[in-house]
Amino acid sequence: MSKEPRPRPDGFERDALQRGQSPQGARSEPPYWVDTGRYRGLAAWMMSTDHKRIGIMYLVALLSFFSVGVFLGFLMRLNLLAPGAFIKAQTYNELFTMHGLIQIFLFIIPGVPVAFGNFFLPILIGARDVAFPRLNRLSWWLYVAGAFIVLLSLVIQGRPPDTGWTFYAPYSIRTATSVSVAVSGVFVLGFSSILTGLNFVTTIHRLRARGMGWFRMPAFCWTLYATGWVQMLATPVLAITLVLIVLSRVFGIGFFDPARGGDPILFEHLFWTYSHPAVYIMLLPAMGIISEVVPVFSRKSLYGYVAVAMSALGIAIVGYAVWGHHMFTSGMSDTARVVFSFLTFLVAVPSGVKVFNWISTLYKGSIKLDAPLIFALSFIFLFSIGGLTGLIIGSLAPNLHVHGTYFIVAHFHYVMFGGAGFAILTALHYWFPKMFGRMYNERRAKLGWLFLFVGFQFLYFSMFILGYKGMPRRYFDYPPQFRGLNIVSTVGSWILVTGLIIIAVNLLRSLRHGSPAPRDPWGGKTLEWRIPSPPAAENFRTPPVISDRPYDYGPE
Amino acid sequence: MDETGAPLQTGAAGRERIDELGKRTGMWFFLFTELLFFGGMFLLYSIYRYKFAADFHRAAAAENLVLGSVNTAILLTSSLAMVLAVAAVRRGQIRRSIRLQGATISLGTVFLVIKGIEWGAKISRGIYPNGPTLLSLSKGQIIFFGLYFTMTGLHALHVLIGITAIAFMIRFTTRGVIGADRYSRLENTGLYWHFVDIVWIYLYPLFYLIT
Predict the structure, then answer these.
(1) pLDDT at res. A380
(2) DSSP secondary structure of A332-376
(3) CB nearest to B33's CB, from A128, A232, A540
(4) Which CATH superfamily groups domain A14-530?
(5) What DSSP state is assigned to residue A517?
(6) Residue A36: per-residue pLDDT
């Protein structure tokens, strides 16, 4: 922006400059984690409707499940080093199913919104809490219940599910493993997700602070808004699909059973009607995080703010209409395939807009290469690879060649892990001081990143090549010509896990031993950096009044 | 703030008031999600109806048109009672509202009883998923009755949830939690009830009138 910075009507900024911190930033109330109500300890957390406490509890749960999911993936890679040496074929099927179920439904779909959205959305729009705090707590309880039921499927009703996370019919209806339990758990998780989306959309509509017009919201809020709509409009379709799976298994209703007039392809349609938009539930808020971090560490306003905001909505809308590209080989008319392929290309446009906006924000910025920015830049790099390979498999001819191979596995790990996963790590390092009131060790964070980033390339890039050469996914064994690259990939998984451990140890140590975090360690301009680290129970002592755009780094 | 169980009331700009419009907004969003939940089944219905038009025609002839029509009338009347109950609360006529809410519950229960009779009649003839008679029918008819039991079953579940919710509303109205100045809960419950009603308005022709 080229206009002169105006003095705030309430003297907000001048006051802050004179005293070294804003009136909001003065610490007078205890941090949000001090119990003040009826309950103490764990009960005070579980019964709390404070969005920050709920966000922290989600974060702990998510990262725990993430660790379990990583461990299962690690075991799968170990098996592929020496197929069958210590893991049986059936166990391998169960491993990749549980790996997918945990990473997708317990970690990355709830992911950014429930942890960072809960903690920061109300603060970023200047509210004291979400629109329906008790509904928010209900979402959290449902998440816990759903996760518990999913994990229950490991131990009751025979063996764990072996269908893959997609529960494709008719196998999911016939297998003797405990699919019904796992599916019920996912249903409950879906309910939790719907309520969170509903809550956030209402919050953004109703609780923005005075002066916080739609185009003065930080970009992260825009992505949460778009995500909320996708959660509301897509998740119910998954819910009914899962209900139908359970009804088919328990009562023998034959909607997806050809012997009874049903059509299994309809299951795939219904499933992907949800599960492709779900990709954007994972990615949109991740992109929002990058849009927050890049301006702060290049000391520039977000380039093309309106385009970034609108592209979030664009992705949400177009992303709803591309599910058919998962089914190019399943049996669809050529017309349908061409249309879905075209729409898939279309959805790449708003994603590209975002990437170019981040790069343009960096251009001629005063770049400070702190850990959050390093993770954010890795996101842009990895997401670009994931996105561009997405175009390869979104085109009809190459799709037929690589469908069901490791190429797909590599693609979605670049998008999910390289994208959403790295965004969560970005947010973790960016907001850690605000959430926990401590700084972490910058050097160890960067060291962890280095291992993670290098291991990531070994682990997943080799899968692109394997897939291109024709190695099918979900097989527990392979012919000898794929051996070399499988070793590279497995060694990569060791490096990657080392990186994750370094990052985790660094952050966990800092909870206790880190130096106290200042109000605004990064020079951020959005509202969360104007209140103390960690914030007090209701965020703002006086409701903030907003008079300008979110990333105000003065005239360029 | 939170642990006391009292709702945290944050208005725009932090005004301490209940955001009635916000609550209504949230309810409408929830109804969107319900719409998509049933939408999945309506999608299956339309595809299979297209595929097995003749079978659907034959199967629907076995439905009891009289009971279905009576049930439609009952559910529509219950919605009327619900609207009047909300209107009564807004005018401060608390007792009248409680009576009307009670009437809604009674009509909803009658609906479920009739539904149960219909189901019972089918089940006794062996027409239920995996049932002996049903499996001897054509594929299209198996699908039709599968859809019938799934869709009316999930609808009945929603009626049951609605009845439970209204029972809570009666309690709230009695205790004065719902009143002339705070009626968004009752209104939202009413919205839910009308939604359930509307779903039935679509189910009725799809299962009883297409023959």
Answers:
(1) 97
(2) --HHHHHHHHHHHHHHHHHHHHHHHHHHHHHTT------HHHHHH
(3) A232
(4) Cytochrome c oxidase-like, subunit I domain (1.20.210.10)
(5) P
(6) 82
Distance of CA A141 to the CA centre of its chain: 20
SS3 assignment, position A405: strand
The average pLDDT across B126-155 equals 93
Which phi and psi (to 5°) does residue B179 adopt? -150, -175
List the single residue in B4, B19, B140 with the smallest CB-CB distance to A261: B140
Helix A422-436 × helix A483-513 angle, to 10° = 10
Sort A253 into a burial class: Cβ within 10 Å, 0-12 / 13-18 / 19+: buried
Looking at chain A, which residue has its C-alpha nearest residue B46? A266
| pLDDT value of position A410 | 97
Residue B142: which of A131, A207, A260 has the nearest Cβ? A260
What residues of chain B lie within 8 A of the CB of A234, using their CB? 36
Distance, CA of A333 to CA of A522 (rounded, Å): 53
Q: Where are the domains of chain B?
A: 20-209
Nearest CA in chain B to A257: B143
Task: Please choose, from the candidates A119, A24, A12, A19, the residue with its C-alpha nearest in 3D space to the C-alpha of residue A542.
Answer: A24
Q: List, as ranges, residues 403-432 from A with C-beta within 8 Å of B.
A: none
| Cα B207 versus chain centre, distance | 16
Q: What is the identity of the amino acid at A72?
A: L
**Secondary structure of A276-315 in the HEC alphabet?**
HHHHHHHHHHHHHHHHHHHHHHHCCCCCCHHHHHHHHHHH
**Closest-approach residue (CA) in chain B for A45:** B3
Low-confidence ranges of chain A (pLDDT < 70): 1-27, 555-556
Bridge partners of A472, per DSSP, are A405
Say yes or no for a CB contact (<8 Å) between A36 and B48: no
On whether any CB of chain A is under 8 Å from the CB of B14, the answer is yes
* Assembly ipTM: 0.89
SS3 A536: strand
Q: Which amino acid is residue A89, in one-letter code?
A: A
- CATH for the B20-209 domain, from 3.40.30.10, 3.40.50.720, 1.20.120.80, 3.30.450.30: 1.20.120.80
| Helix (H/G/I), strand (E/B), else coil: A14 | helix
B124 — contact with chain A (CB < 8 Å)?
no
Domain spans, chain A: 14-530
Inter-CA distances, B202 with A234, B42, B48, B198, B205, Å: 22, 9, 16, 7, 6
- Is residue A194 within 8 Å of residue A231, measured between CB atoms? yes
Check B12 against A205: CB less than 8 A apart.
no
Cα gap B198→B204, rounded to integer Å = 10
* Residues of chain B contacting A209 with CB distance shorter than 8 Å: 12-14
Structure tokens that stand for A162 in this block: 């072996």
Percent of chain A with pLDDT over 70: 94
**The tokens 């879905």 sit on which residue?**
A340
On whether any CB of chain B is under 8 Å from the CB of A201, the answer is yes
